[in-house]
Amino acid sequence: MSLRELVVLGTSSAVPTRRRNHNGYLLMWDGEGFLFDPGEGTQRQMVLAGLSAHDITWICLTHMHGDHCLGVPGVVQRIARDKVPHTVTATFPASGETYWRRLRHAAVFGDTDVIAERPLSGPVAELRAGELTLTARLLSHPVEAYGYRVQEPEGRRMLPERLEARGVRGPLVGRLQREGAVVAPDGSTVTLEECSEPRPGQSMAFIMDTRECEGIAPLAEGADLLVIESTFLSPEAALAEQYGHLTAAQAGRIAAEAGVRHLVLTHFSERYDVNDEPRFLAEAAASYSGPITLAHDLDRIRVPRRAR
User: Fold this and answer.
1) Looking at domain 4-154+200-302, what is its CATH homologous superfamily?
2) What is the pLDDT of residue 307?
3) Residues in Cβ contact with 153 at an 8 Å cutoff, skipping those fewer than 6 apart
4) 22 annotated among ligand-binding-site residues
5) Is residue 111 a known part of a binding site?
6) So what's the pLDDT on residue 1?
7) Which residue in 67, 224, 276, 299 is the catalytic one?
8) Tens digits of per-residue pLDDT, 176-207?
9) String of DSSP letters for the chain
10) Which of 114, 183, 278, 300 stands 20 to 30 A from 35 (CA)?
């Protein structure tokens, strides 16, 4: 059975709180493990979540502010200590490469050669992760920052009534899926297009520190799961704009306009406490009518089933 699940390791912004660790999000997707923005304490949060360094195949940094990257040294050293055998690809803004080097070699340890670096430059970058596409797009923050989208390729959904009408049964169905055409028992040729319809690939978008900008929409468009910062509430909208962040109201509007299927709010300023959480949900829900999760540390959130 495939596993497509987001494990939330931390949900605070610049300053951790008693209830919220610095950022950290591990997207488990059919054997790939995308670790987004490992902030300070990520290694310990992974232990608490029952995760292993072996689960990580990608380290994806949106930008080089501390709450999004100070966990890199511990994570890399754990990958080395646990002798992870597979390649772990690290993506980060090319403009922050100096900081990446400092984090990558922050202490004395027995190093590993499995880390493959892929610095990001330009407005858009596309990378391959097996059959998945990882797209990075430039956002708007005081330092160079990227958002990410994980996209599964489009597939086909078989239509049983059409298969039956053409006499395609049993092993012939598998051959039709693999080869695109088969000869039916009556001698006619049956094509895959005749007995199936397009099935959209699943997608997840990860949008951290940014004010509203043109890079957001293509990342979020039609995403099954949108994980997005909502650092502030609307009374602090001017502050959000000044520091390159979003409010919960803006996050809800972005999700609604993009046709997102499940919205996850995170990256909360330390100025707010548990009593403010209903306000974040209410602001987002004013525009977005779909399911909303206000993320907490160690939450596990399934990617919604494929849209029909």
Assistant:
1) Ribonuclease Z/Hydroxyacylglutathione hydrolase-like (3.60.15.10)
2) 59
3) 131, 132, 133, 201
4) no
5) no
6) 44
7) 67
8) 999 999 999 999 999 999 898 888 899 999 99
9) ---EEEEEEE-B-SS--SS-PSPEEEEEETTEEEEE---TTHHHHHHHTT--GGG-SEEE-S--SGGGTTTHHHHHHHHHHTT--S-EEEEEEGGGHHHHHHHHTSS-----S-EEEEEE-SSEEEEEETTEEEEEEE--SSS--EEEEEEPPPEEEE-HHHHHHTT--THHHHHHHHHSEEE-TTS-EEEGGGGEEEEPPPEEEEE-S--S-TTHHHHHTT-SEEEEE--B-GGGHHHHHHHT--BHHHHHHHHHHHT-S-EEEE-B-TT--GGGHHHHHHHHHTT--S-EEE--TT-EEEPPPPP-
10) 278
Distance CA 168, CA 3 (A): 30
Question: Any catalytic annotation for residue 55?
Answer: no
pLDDT in tens, 22-54: 999 999 999 999 999 999 999 999 999 999 999
Q: How far apart are CA 295 and CA 126, in angstroms?
A: 28
For residue 209, say whether it is annotated as part of any ligand binding site. yes
Stretches in the chain below the pLDDT threshold 70: 1-2, 307-308
Q: Is residue 262 part of an annotated ligand binding site?
A: no
Contact at 8 Å (CB) between 115 and 90?
A: yes
pLDDT confidence of residue 180: 92
Regarding pTM above 0.85, the answer is yes
Question: In the prediction, which pLDDT does 199 show?
Answer: 84
Please say whether the beta carbons of 208 and 190 come within 8 A.
Answer: no
All structural domains of the chain with their residue ranges: 4-154+200-302, 156-197
- How many residues does the structure list for the chain? 308
Q: Encoding tokens for residue 103?
A: 């984090």
pLDDT score recorded for residue 122: 96
pLDDT for 197 equals: 86
Task: List the structure tokens of 162.
Answer: 């059409």
